[in-house]
Design brief:
CATH architecture of the domain at 93-186: 2-Layer Sandwich
Distance between the termini: 94 Å
Oligomer: single chain
CATH class of the domain at 93-186: Alpha Beta
Structural class: alpha+beta
Helix content: 40-55%
Strand order of the largest sheet: 1-4-2-3
CATH superfamily of the domain at 93-186: OmpA-like domain
Radius of gyration: 37 Å
Order of helices and strands: HHHHEHEHEHE
CATH topology of the domain at 93-186: 60s Ribosomal Protein L30, Chain: A
Strand content: 5-15%
Largest sheet: 4 strands, mixed
């Protein structure tokens, strides 16, 4: 009878020797299967747990609160004036990213904006008013393509009535600054 348990023990040993080297059970599971696991005194276990908790508490106390990530569109959204070429309502390529950033911002919230179209002083009043409105409508269309809703955007024209630059500085440089759409965020 004593040979039978010895034979079973030898068979289990051979079987385990042929198994892969990576353990398939957690290290604590060996204690329940009858394998000898070195015992750690209770005092040492408590000290190790306390030290670990103290280290964790110390690490978190020296950590700074998470800072919000910088908004990559912040510089674009800070700009609110789009300039136009003479007799044109086309949004220039240099302002496309800015208008897209504003459209995304509007689409993500409930803000509203008024687009004020302006022209230089050349041309008749009726022509300039119509051109100012076409410019504002072109920006409105671009904002809507980027995510803004129709109800969030209002387009108006001031034509040549509110020049950004006037008086003695008139000429092409002043006129170029007057051909614009200003984005005015509403409360």
């Amino acid at each position: 009878m004593k040979k039978l348990p010895l034979f079973v023990l030898a068979g289990v040993t051979l079987l385990l020797a042929g198994c892969p080297k990576t353990p398939t059970t957690p290290p604590d599971a060996g204690a329940s299967s009858g394998a000898a696991v070195p015992a750690q005194p209770a005092a040492e276990a408590n000290t190790a747990a306390t030290d670990s908790a103290a280290t964790t508490a110390q690490d978190t106390s020296t950590m700074t609160p998470a800072q919000p990530l910088p908004d990559p569109d912040a510089a674009l959204v800070a700009r609110t004036v789009i300039y136009f070429a003479l007799d044109s309502e086309a949004v220039a390529e240099e302002f496309a990213a800015m208008v897209t950033a504003h459209g995304k911002r509007l689409g993500a919230g409930s803000a509203r904006v008024r687009l004020e179209g302006h022209t230089d002083e050349r041309g008749s009043d009726s022509y300039n008013n119509a051109l100012g409105l076409r410019r504002a409508d072109a920006v409105k269309k671009a904002l809507k393509l980027a995510g803004a809703q129709d109800a969030q955007v209002e387009a108006v024209s001031f034509g040549e009535q509110k020049p950004a630059v006037g008086g003695e500085g008139e000429g092409e440089e002043a006129w170029a600054k007057n051909r614009r759409v200003e984005m005015v965020y509403l409360p």
